[in-house]
Amino acid sequence: MEFPFDVDALFPERITVLDQHLRPPARRPGTTTPARVDLQQQIMTILDELGKASAKAQHLPAPITSASRMQSNRHVVYILKDISARPAGKGAIIGFLKVGYKKLFVLDDREAHNEVEPLCILDFYIHESVQRHGHGRELFQYMLQKERVEPHQLAIDRPSPKLLKFLNKHYNLETTVPQVNNFVIFEGFFAHQHPPARKLPPKRAEGDIKPYSSSDREFLKVAVEPPWPLNRAPRRATPPAHPPPRSSSLGNSPDRGPLRPFVPEQELLRSLRLCPPHPTARLLLASDPGGSPAQRRRTSSLPRSDESRY
């Protein structure tokens, strides 16, 4: 790809590595550039044009690589320039490769979920006019050495059929592990996992889940006391050696004995009928103006004098 500015002066090396800051690389000694020329703006123009060309080649609705996306993400882009072609002495760009670390949830061979953070291939493009000349392998191999990763440790975001053939041809990556997202990983991804990858903690077995706490279990063991006076036990014939002290204050509830089984209603009524009258009740009957029951019977048997007159 050609540009209206001097690409060879902007990128001194064959492969240039740029991060989110998009800072121009160090310039060669003796190279001068007018102060009014914005080198960062030239880099942004190159990234925007490369992203458009890559989206068109992959039949994407919108570019996934641009200068604004680079500035808002911690990605790294490798740009390969053509050192032989010098149209009008300005140089040209062959292609680029964008990578970055991402947190993913991927499935292994046993369909278990794993939280990993691998290096991902996010975008890869070589200009159509120079394809099948070894430029793609040169750029990809440089990235592997720079990032210190193996091909099977990579995760590829929505790879095109051309990229899958490229990985199979040069790195023998053929068998994939099925995933539910857009990323593709190959067999051996979990064999030699890189340090950032980590697995999720295993789920706790159902038997370990407690339906309630230990304090709740102790509470359920306590018997429920029936209401007073049904909870009173029969009095013993001999009083205890040390009876508990009684409270002298009024309004206190009576002393409660130990718990006893619930008394049926019929048995309770029978015990109340057989209970002797209280001494107080006898005094009330004795003080009745009508006298005793025998006296009332004798009085009612006598004839009335008033009735004989009529």
What attributes characterize this protein structure?
elongated, alpha+beta, 29% helix, 310 residues, disordered C terminus
Describe this structure in words.
Acetyl-CoA binds at residues 124-137, 160-169. The modification N6-acetyllysine is found at residues 56, 146. One of its GO terms (biological process) is neuron development. This protein is α+β, with helices and mostly antiparallel strands. It has ten helices and nine strands. The protein has helices at residues 7-10, 39-58, 67-72, 135-147, 161-171, 214-220, 265-273, 279-286, 293-301, 305-308, and strands at 15-18, 76-82, 92-101, 104-107, 113-116, 119-126, 155-157, 176-177, 183-186. It has a seven-stranded mixed β-sheet, with helices on both faces. It has a two-stranded antiparallel sheet with strand order 4-5. It starts with 6 loop residues before the first helix and ends with a helix.
